[in-house]
Design brief:
alpha/beta, Peroxisomal Thiolase, Chain A, domain 1, five-stranded mixed beta sheet, four-stranded mixed beta sheet, binds acetyl coenzyme *A
Length: about 325
């Protein structure tokens, strides 16, 4: 038993940052960034994450023809919430006036939207009528702009979908490997506690030293994980759905690196022409990548009703997930 997407929406900030702008801060070039990642520019938000989430949610509700009062549950996926507490979902619930909705956040890093789809499906089949799933990320908040190997990769944005239950099939495959947790992380700045000698989490848990509050990534290890996990997730989700990957109308992958997408596609023998890619313009906005790409492709007419889609993501954890469903 599956889900039906009633409406999609997204928000990308106005401020466009071209690759060239990074040459002012780090030793890099437009040529290197395009060649190694496929990214030409990204959007950066001058404001709070919840503003983007609220904007994307409003557009998804509008396209579904629904009011915030029609929503029973708001699920937000984010690794860049404005507050450690309360949840981003509660802030959005209050801002849009979704008085009837419960609200909670999910952290499954860049695979958050895919995990969110499956969690929404479970709640819907447990009796909730409509779920608003929002993935909203302000990666600029945790990007270390002195680290050239990561800072060029990320952007900000939000995507959202309104979901109800459907009797159409849905299949998902997920995995987690916490032994890779130290390859991709951002830890909180340490608090000074008067009663204890504050120990660095880096020295006590085997994670490498990294600037607190910013993202650390062992790019090559994450790359290797990604090019294995992405095809695995697609194959497993398609097998549960009862189709070969070739039968998919569209693949919507996490937009981390065009080379990861191309390598995963070639392992699957899946054509790039049926793969939704906006990485050149949008860069990596973690869990927001997939719903932004989905919304853009719905609005420009590439994705149409009745088509079979596979959303696939991977990220910090390390985690991965793939979901196959009908649009
Ligand atoms: N400009 C110029 N040179 C650079 C830059 C840059 N921006 N960044 C790194 N380099 C240099 C390195 O220092 C290195 O130099 P050296 O050989 O003198 O040591 C050289 O380029 C090659 O570095 P590699 O790390 O081998 O480059 P690679 O081709 O592997 O690309 C990249 C690096 C793009 C980070 C790649 O490993 C990658 O995409 N990894 C996965 C990223 C990812 O998927 N992240 C997703 C999860 S994160 C999230 O979603 C929140």
């Amino acid at each position: 038993m599956g889900i039906r997407i009633l409406g999609t929406g997204s928000f990308v900030p106005d401020r466009v940052v071209e690759n060239e702008e990074f040459t002012r801060y780090v030793d890099t070039s437009d040529e290197w960034i395009v060649k190694h990642s496929g990214i030409s520019r990204r959007r950066i938000h001058d404001g709070a994450n919840f503003e983007m989430a609220v904007a994307a949610a409003g557009r998804a509700l509008e396209s579904a023809g629904l009011s915030p009062l029609d929503i029973d549950l708001i699920l937000c996926t984010t690794v860049t919430s404005d507050y450690a507490s309360p949840s981003l979902a509660c802030i959005v619930q209050g801002r849009i006036g979704a008085e009837n909705a419960l609200a909670l956040d999910i952290n499954a890093a860049c695979a958050g939207f895919v995990f969110g789809l499956d969690m929404a499906r479970l709640y819907l089949h447990d009796g909730m009528r409509r779920v608003l799933l929002i993935s909203s990320e302000k990666l600029s908040q945790i990007t270390n702009y002195a680290d050239r190997s990561t800072c060029v990769l990320f952007g900000d944005g939000a995507g959202a979908v309104v979901l109800e239950k459907s009797d159409r099939p849905f299949a998902a495959a997920f995995g987690a490997d916490g032994t890779g947790a130290h390859t991709l992380f951002a830890r909180f700045p340490e608090n000074e506690v008067p009663f204890v000698r504050t120990r660095s989490t880096a020295s006590c848990d085997g994670f490498p030293e990294a600037k607190p509050g910013t993202l650390y990534m062992d790019g090559q290890k994450v790359y290797k994980f990604a090019v294995t996990a992405m095809p695995k997730a697609v194959r497993e989700a398609c097998a549960k759905y009862g189709i070969e990957p070739a039968a998919l109308d569209w693949l919507i992958p996490h937009q981390a690196n065009i080379r990861i997408i191309q390598t995963a596609n070639s392992a699957l023998k899946f054509p790039m022409e049926k793969t939704i890619c906006n990485i050149a313009e949008r860069a990596n906005s973690s869990s927001a990548c997939i719903p932004i790409a989905l919304d853009e492709a719905v609005r420009d007419g590439r994705i149409r009703r009745g088509q079979t889609l596979c959303a696939v993501g991977f990220g910090a954890g390390l985690v991965y997930g793939g979901a196959v469903f009908e649009y």
